[in-house]
Specification:
The chain is mainly alpha-helical. The chain has a single domain, classed as ABC transporter involved in vitamin B12 uptake, BtuC, CATH 1.10.3470. The chain is built from twelve helices and two strands; from the N terminus they run H-H-H-H-H-E-E-H-H-H-H-H-H-H. The protein has helices spanning 2-32, 39-59, 65-90, 100-122, 131-135, 148-170, 172-182, 184-189, 194-216, 226-241, 246-266, 271-285, and strands at residues 138-141, 144-147. The model has no long low-confidence stretch (mean pLDDT 90). It is a multi-pass membrane protein.
Amino acid sequence: MLTVWAILIDGFIYASWLFLVAAGLTVIYGVMRILNMAHGSLYALGAYAAASALGWYYAGGGDQLIMAFVIIAASAIMVGALTGLVIERGLLRLMYGRDEVLMLIVTFAVLLILEDVIKLIWGTTPYSAYQPYAAMGRINIDVLTVSGYDLMVLAVSLVIGVGLWFWLERTKVGKILRSIIHDREVSEAMGVNVRRMFTITFMIGATLGAIAGGITAPIISVVPGLGVEVIVMAFAVVVTGGLGSITGAAVGAVIVGLARATSIHTMPELELFIIYAVMATVLIFRPNGLFGQVIARKI
């Protein structure tokens, strides 16, 4: 029974992190039909920005946990929104309407460029911002102890998930975005500024990726190559759940998170294999993912 509790707790905590990473990726694909491989570098930029800002804050004598969270949010939002705006306006806007595979290659090139930009700015020395993680201590759940920071990440992922659902389903902007998803040409004919909505969407998706990196920074050692590792995991989640579906990203994150936790506690040698085995199994029976929709081809 103890093992079951450990699997559930570890699985849902890891799933919350996976959802934070994958949310921005699936938002961008759902609206723009762009599988943004540069999302991994946006995550890394958020992690580096947050780690740097926290380092300056604590080096200057700061010790307020609330202020540390404000710094994480502000630094991640600023770097994510600005970088997303530059990528969308400076590159992607010139290529709308091109084949999805070409857009995939272009964003992968952006990923490689940003990885080198990160090394130029921050170097190759690892960054650490452990103070918020240590300050939140550990919480006893039955006979298990769980990091308070990990539970906070779980709460943040729930808030972001509900917020995205409300934004897409209950707001005017969300309804406009859903109309673009359904038929871009008709939306343009009805007077919707599709390009402006694309800019807003990409900036939001990029910001979500940077926020995920910023929140993760106190848990890990921020090192070069971080974005490449993350984009692979995010891709596995969104493909499992269905590209473009927020619900699918959440369900896919839970499935992958629980599968990984089960493997770690029972067969640790299969930790990496099990993630891709889950993805492959789902795609065998649901080629478009659990919540993916078949898009009619226009002729």
